[in-house]
Amino acid sequence: MSKLFVVTERKLVAGDFLEHLRRIIAARPHAIILREKDLSFSAYLSLVDQLAPLCENADVHLILNWRDPMIRYPGTLVQLPYAMAKNGPVGTPFAVSVHSVAEIDQLNDSQAAYYLVGNIYETSCKPGKAACGLAFLTECTHAARQPVIAIGGITPERVPDILATGAAGYAVRSPLMTAADPVSLIKRFHQFEKKESRQ
Residues 51, 60, 181, 49: what is their CA dihedral angle, to the nearest 10 degrees? Predict the structure, then answer.
């Protein structure tokens, strides 16, 4: 199974956003993190309505990341900030964005499905913010009881190093949102996943 989590940002997509996501989903990443926080509630749910059956048919997880972290939709997870994670939604699977080993230690007894940790490399998403680095990611994977997903500046060539830390997966935003051929790029990510498994 793929270890790739795709983070969306429709403003980076040159063409039709929904068609772009259809192509990505058909290439079967592990998950889509639908991060469109500027949409209205109704517009966001309309997008979820269209994506949920596509994800289900492709066996791709759909993760909601909207400006109200307690948003719910059947069959999906929600992505929570650390500050809200201790009181995560009852009965709804959730993931948590964390930025330190101390935060992981505080949440290891929670019901979190996984931790999203970053930024591992420098990234355009957080200009001027120093990279956390692979040593930090390794500390996080050793401290965590739940799976750790790395995010921030990840290219196909960096995937083996990411997975060698013990990370269960990695998340990618800009390269896949701006790619003219996202399917070919996903294939490259998958090829480098296989290289790590053979090492």
Answer: 0
Residue with tokens 């989903």: 25
Cα–Cα distance between 140 and 181 in angstroms, integer? 33
Contact call for residues 140 and 119 (beta carbons, < 8 A): no
Q: Please, what sign has the CA dihedral across residues 177, 144, 84, 55?
A: positive
Q: Would you write out the chain's pLDDT as a tens digit for each of its 199 residues? A: 899 999 999 999 999 999 999 999 999 999 999 999 999 999 999 999 999 999 999 999 999 999 988 888 999 999 998 988 876 666 778 899 999 999 999 998 888 899 999 999 987 666 667 789 999 999 999 999 999 999 999 999 999 999 999 999 999 999 999 999 999 999 999 999 987 555 5
**Dihedral, CA of residue 5, residue 10, residue 12 and residue 18, to nearest 10:** 80
Strand partners, 82: none
pTM of the model: 0.93
